[in-house]
Amino acid sequence: MVWPTILLSFFGFPETKEIWIRMLGLFTFTVGIYYFYSSAHKQIAFYKATVIGRVFFFLMTLGFVFLFHQPFVLALIGGMDLLGALWTQFTLKESE
Question: Where are the domains of the chain?
Fold first, then answer.
């Protein structure tokens, strides 16, 4: 939210002064609060839902790359989220 251009340049995207990148940072931070709260209160259903959402996110980033000719780094970002989804799913299975 404070220095979005650092992350943008790290992933090879051009710098921007538009507010939307900060809004996305704010949204991401807010979702992080949900994750923290859900973890503190052992809300397993929330984590099960995130597995589905994270796989969907990965598939959509692949779609953006291949259908809309976007930079491949988007698929790498989605791939990191897919790994998180797999890890979450594995952890949920172990805790049952």
Answer: 1-41, 42-96
